[in-house]
């Protein structure tokens, strides 16, 4: 399970980074989303992988999974969702304004200033 | 435990919601509430700084949960000093935004401004790494709104770059936090300090990776050399008051580096020894050189100031990278100086832009600005401060940093880069100043000599159609510059205070004890049952003492 989990995190990160380096807003946003999935899984695994155990410390329960990473992941998901929404809006504004979805500044800008 | 510690976070948060929901269509009311809020924030920050100035460490437990489980806010010398600096900066920047009318060129300026303050204050006060991440996100999401305030295609494009860069930074931050949690099982800074110290140096790969990842995250925020590329465009394209406020955001990164790498990963810790000490200093020096070379090469004044921010962050990190008490103390002195100087320069650049019409901030000769002598004088003072010429505080700060770097093996390189880059900055700023303010008079004389049609001659004299005298703008810029002068005049007491702050940083034991030993609701089993028994008698018993 650990191997599968680790390699899926790695694969998601690699795909995310590849898309980010495309430097066009749509692939970049998809790439950051993939990176966010990767990091959420990574955070989830930071409390060790346990299957079928309650996330709570109670009397009589000796085997439990760490609840804190779940709380962290929840926070991270909410934040990354909000951030993705913001970047979509801003990128859309930039695209509609400039009619160009490249993330980098256009070349001629350096020439005319 | 005093409840005032959370006030700098709660007050802007409530005020932002109030401005957004109730007074969003009433500009005057929004301005009044915003200024009143920032003024009371300043008073609270001054009170907190005064409380912490005797070296005591106040903590605030959210929900009265005790430390490693609950979230704590900590007010020690360093964090209260940064909170006070933020409040001072915010007040004058806000006055400028109101005076120049920037706040009415788009929607929700005041609400976003307050949210931004909330995030910055929280980042300075929190004692928990994950909470630091959350406050980073709060300040970032507010800064995205402020950055593209009043719109425009160029600004939106710069905004996209800025947001994407910071999204990647946030992802990296989460990876670092996950790695730290996996290695230590806690994210509370005080608790981490103890647990990291217990890690066997022979089996420390995970924590070493986490330490470097975390340093990279903070380096992105602080715009240290290879990770500074987001800064010039975003600061130059952002509205001037926003860019001035952003000056404190790079300092949030520097603050986090100082905090984490003196307490959790102190320089003498064996586990992480040799990890960043050897390359942080060269990288900071490269940043300093890049920044000041950018000052020399910039074609627009706002970019020039943005590059000078990179340069001053390089200077700051040079001092931090020494990780000696003298270095950190000099860095803290320089933090205040560079924040105020950069803010003043961004605001001055905006005054120049509004006077120059379509020439904007291009560094080419245009017709003189109305009230040009005054603005030129302000620019002159600001430039002296930023480049670190005597007699202003930049010079004092630079002397302190040179002095602190005297014992390092890289002393010759450090001195050469610091002094050489200062020369570059002086040349860059004087070129900009002479083009903006002197060439314009030559051009005006030339045009006056040429027989122009009458109507254009008339246009020459009435350059400013509104006849608007920027009183509030001049007051806020003047106040920032006056603070720089005060920072120079009181350099002695300020340096002594920074020395005391640094001593507190390098002896983190009282901080750790204050956080971990404070009484509060506990999550261990005994306490849980005691709580259950006590619940029958009434919950008031769990109320913590002040």
TrEMBL record, chain A:
Parts forming coiled coils: none
Topology of this chain in the membrane: Multi-pass membrane protein
Keywords associated with the record: Cell membrane, Membrane, Transmembrane, Transmembrane helix
Signal peptide limits: none
Family annotation (InterPro entries): CPA3_antiporter_subunitC, NUOK/Mnh_C1-like
Pfam family for this entry, one: Oxidored_q2
Record has Chloroplast as a keyword: no
Protein name: Cation:proton antiporter
Organism: Puniceibacterium antarcticum
Automatic annotation (TrEMBL), chain B:
Superkingdom field: Bacteria
GO annotation, cellular component aspect: plasma membrane
Membrane topology (UniProt): Multi-pass membrane protein
Subcellular localization, as worded in the UniProt entry: Cell membrane; Membrane
UniProt cross-references to InterPro entries, sorted A to Z: CPA3_Na-H_Antiporter_D, NADH_UbQ_OxRdtase, ND/Mrp_TM
Membrane-crossing segments per the record: 6-25, 32-50, 70-97, 162-182, 209-231, 243-264, 276-297, 304-325, 331-353, 365-389, 409-429, 471-490
Residue ranges of the region described as Disordered: 523-546
Keywords noted in UniProt: Cell membrane, Membrane, Transmembrane, Transmembrane helix
UniProt feature, compositional bias: Basic and acidic residues: 523-532
Boundaries of every NADH:quinone oxidoreductase/Mrp antiporter transmembrane domain copy: 127-420
Presence of the UniProt keyword Cell membrane in the record: yes
Comp. bias (Low complexity): 536-546
GO BP term, pick one: ATP synthesis coupled electron transport
GO function term, MF aspect, one: NADH dehydrogenase (ubiquinone) activity
Family: Belongs to the CPA3 antiporters (TC 2.A.63) subunit D family.
Known role: NDH-1 shuttles electrons from NADH, via FMN and iron-sulfur (Fe-S) centers, to quinones in the respiratory chain. The immediate electron acceptor for the enzyme in this species is believed to be ubiquinone. Couples the redox reaction to proton translocation (for every two electrons transferred, four hydrogen ions are translocated across the cytoplasmic membrane), and thus conserves the redox energy in a proton gradient.
Protein name: NADH:quinone oxidoreductase/Mrp antiporter transmembrane domain-containing protein
Annotated organism of origin: Puniceibacterium antarcticum
């Amino acid at each position: 399970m650990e191997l599968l989990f680790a390699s899926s995190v790695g694969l998601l990160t690699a795909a995310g980074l590849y898309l980010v380096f495309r430097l066009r807003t749509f692939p970049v946003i998809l790439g950051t989303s993939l990176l966010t999935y990767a990091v959420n899984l990574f955070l989830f695994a930071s409390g060790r992988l346990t299957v079928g155990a309650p996330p709570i410390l109670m009397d009589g329960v000796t085997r439990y999974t760490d609840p804190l990473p779940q709380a962290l992941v929840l926070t991270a998901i909410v934040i990354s969702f909000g951030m993705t929404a913001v970047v979509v809006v801003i990128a859309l504004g930039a695209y509609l304004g400039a009619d160009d979805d490249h993330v980098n500044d256009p070349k001629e800008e350096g020439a005319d200033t | 435990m005093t409840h005032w510690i959370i006030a700098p976070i709660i007050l802007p948060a409530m005020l932002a919601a109030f401005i957004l929901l109730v007074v969003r269509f009433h500009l005057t009311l929004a301005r009044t509430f915003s200024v009143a809020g920032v003024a009371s924030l300043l008073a609270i920050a001054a009170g907190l700084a005064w409380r912490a100035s005797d070296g005591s460490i106040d903590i605030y437990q959210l929900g009265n949960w005790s430390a490693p489980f609950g979230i704590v806010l900590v007010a020690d010398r360093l964090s209260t000093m940064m909170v006070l600096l933020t409040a001072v900066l915010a007040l004058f920047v806000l006055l400028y935004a109101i005076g120049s009318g920037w706040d009415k060129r788009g929607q929700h300026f005041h609400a976003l401004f307050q949210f931004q303050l909330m995030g910055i204050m929280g980042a300075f006060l929190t004692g928990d790494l994950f909470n630091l991440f959350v406050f980073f996100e709060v300040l970032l999401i507010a800064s995205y709104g402020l950055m593209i305030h009043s719109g425009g295609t160029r600004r939106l494009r710069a905004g996209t770059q800025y947001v994407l860069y910071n999204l990647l930074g946030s992802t990296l931050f989460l990876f670092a936090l996950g790695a730290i949690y996996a290695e230590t099982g806690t994210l509370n800074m005080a608790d981490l300090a103890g647990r990291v110290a217990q890690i066997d140096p022979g089996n420390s790969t995970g924590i070493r990776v986490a330490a470097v990842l975390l340093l990279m995250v903070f380096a992105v925020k602080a715009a240290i050399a290879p990770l500074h590329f987001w800064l010039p465009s975003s600061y130059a394209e952002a509205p001037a008051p926003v860019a001035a406020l952003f000056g404190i955001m790079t300092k949030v990164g520097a603050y986090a580096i100082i905090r984490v790498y003196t307490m959790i990963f102190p320089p003498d810790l064996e586990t992480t020894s040799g990890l960043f000490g050897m390359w942080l200093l060269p990288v900071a020096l490269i940043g300093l050189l890049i920044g000041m070379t950018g000052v020399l090469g910039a074609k627009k004044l706002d970019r020039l100031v943005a590059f000078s921010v990179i340069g001053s962050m390089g200077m700051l990190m040079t001092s931090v990278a020494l990780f000696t008490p003298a270095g950190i103390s000099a860095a803290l002195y320089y933090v205040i100086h560079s924040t105020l100087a950069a803010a003043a320069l961004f605001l001055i650049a905006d005054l120049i832009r509004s006077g120059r019409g379509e020439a904007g901030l291009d560094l080419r000769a245009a017709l003189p600005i109305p009230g040009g002598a005054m603005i030129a004088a302000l620019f002159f003072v600001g430039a002296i401060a930023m480049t670190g010429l005597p007699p202003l505080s930049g010079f004092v700060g630079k002397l302190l940093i040179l002095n602190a770097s005297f014992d390092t093996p890289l002393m010759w390189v450090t001195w050469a880069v610091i002094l050489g880059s200062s020369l570059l900055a002086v040349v860059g700023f004087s070129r900009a100043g002479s083009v903006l303010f002197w060439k314009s008079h030559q051009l005006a004389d030339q045009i006056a000599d040429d027989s122009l049609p009458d109507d254009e001659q008339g246009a020459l004299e009435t350059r400013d159609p509104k006849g608007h005298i920027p009183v509030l703008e001049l007051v806020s810029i003047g106040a920032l510059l006056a603070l720089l002068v005060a920072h120079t005049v009181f350099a002695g007491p300020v340096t002594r205070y920074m020395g005391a702050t640094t001593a507190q940083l390098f002896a983190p034991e009282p901080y750790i004890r204050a956080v971990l030993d404070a009484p509060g609701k506990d999550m261990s089993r005994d306490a849980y049952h005691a709580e259950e028994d006590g619940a029958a008698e009434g919950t008031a018993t769990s109320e913590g003492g002040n």
